[in-house]
Amino acid sequence: MAKNHGSLIGIETKIEYNPILEELGALYESWKRSGINWMQTEKLSESELEKRSNEKV
Questions:
Q1: Are 49 and 35 in contact (CB under 8 A)?
Q2: Residue 21 near residue 39, CB atoms below 8 Å
Q3: Global pTM?
Q4: For residues 21-42, b (16+ Cβ closer than 10 Å) or e, as one string?
Q5: Is 9 a residue whose pLDDT tops 70?
Q6: Is residue 5 within 8 Å of residue 17, measured between CB atoms?
Q7: CA–CA dist 38, 45 (Å, integer)
Q8: pLDDT in tens, 30-42
Q9: Dihedral of CA 41/47/48/52: which sign?
Q10: Which of 42, 20, 30, 28 is nearest to 5 (CA)?
């Protein structure tokens, strides 16, 4: 790896660094925050949250 991107453990040590992984990680975190926000503010159930997130894609 050309750059050090933190401590790598397990399977992460076998995956060569690629910038797209950073982008996917950021998208995942954004989706997770949105889901948590919807569950807290709108009192959505998991099935309602799943339906809503599929509409946003």
A1: yes
A2: no
A3: 0.58
A4: eeeeeeeeeeeeeebeeeeeee
A5: yes
A6: yes
A7: 9
A8: 989 988 898 889 8
A9: positive
A10: 20
How far is residue 50 from each of residues 26, 31, 40, 43, 56, measured CA to CA in Å? 19, 11, 14, 13, 10
Amino acid found at 13? T
Tell me how far CA of residue 12 lies from CA of 17, 29, 48, in angstroms.
9, 18, 33
What's the rounded Cα separation, in Å, for the pair 8 and 20?
Answer: 17
Residue 48 has pLDDT above 50, yes or no: yes
- Three-state SS letters, 16-57: CCCHHHHHHHHHHHHHHHHHHHHHHHHCCCHHHHHHHHHHHC
Both structure tokens of 5: 């991107």
